[in-house]
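Narrative of activities, Objective 1.

The group set out to show that a structural description can be obtained from nothing but a protein's sequence at a throughput compatible with the screening campaign. Below is one input-output pair from the validation batch, recorded exactly as produced.
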Amino acid sequence: MMDNQASAAAATSIEISLVSDQACLLQFSNIISDAVADQISLVTTALREFEGIIDLIPSYTTLLVVFDTGCFDRFAIQKALQGVLASIDWSSAGNRASQEVVIPVYYGPEVGPDLEDVATHCQLDIEEVIRLHSTTTYRAYAIGFTPGFAFLGNTPEVLHVPRKTTPRLKVPLGSVAIAERQTAVYPSVTPGGWQILGRTPIALVDWASDSLALIKAGDNVRFEPMTKEEFLAQGGNFDGF
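Output recorded for this entry:
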């Protein structure tokens, strides 16, 4: 939790800029951290029921606020946001109640084509790569790229690997991958350049659900290794490679 002086100072440093005729960007910091993410979460919660706000899109260090131009012009929205920031109890940052999402993963050569290369790059054996990846609790900092794609951080420093030089044209549904400080699960078949370690048999997006995505910004996420037999029994497959 931030003390009052530190949190108040952080609040006054938040920059508000108009990025379109119906959207403002709140810039909290240039550094990715849990403290910054806690502030973004606090502001997101405060604005969620604010009349005239259409959408809120949190990211690592920013919050995009989409507003109703029938309620605000570009001057009024910035004044309103400054008022909300001034009214927030910043000492409560860090007291978030977050959901924990556990994702079963089969880390195997049939579905993790980059597992061996990652181990070689990191000078580890494959078992250690799996252990490190699956014993870390990650925070969902942002949702983007495709519906339900959660950017999770941070991977252990020893597992920091670059994106692939040439992205794949099709990354299979459910692929679990890492790149630099991040890890993620591909919720749909898309191009992608992250290093693929394994695959989950569970769905990350439910189009019939009001919540749509299994993982939401602010959630804690853990990966739980599963056997090949468990993976197949839960509907997993080796398609795509």
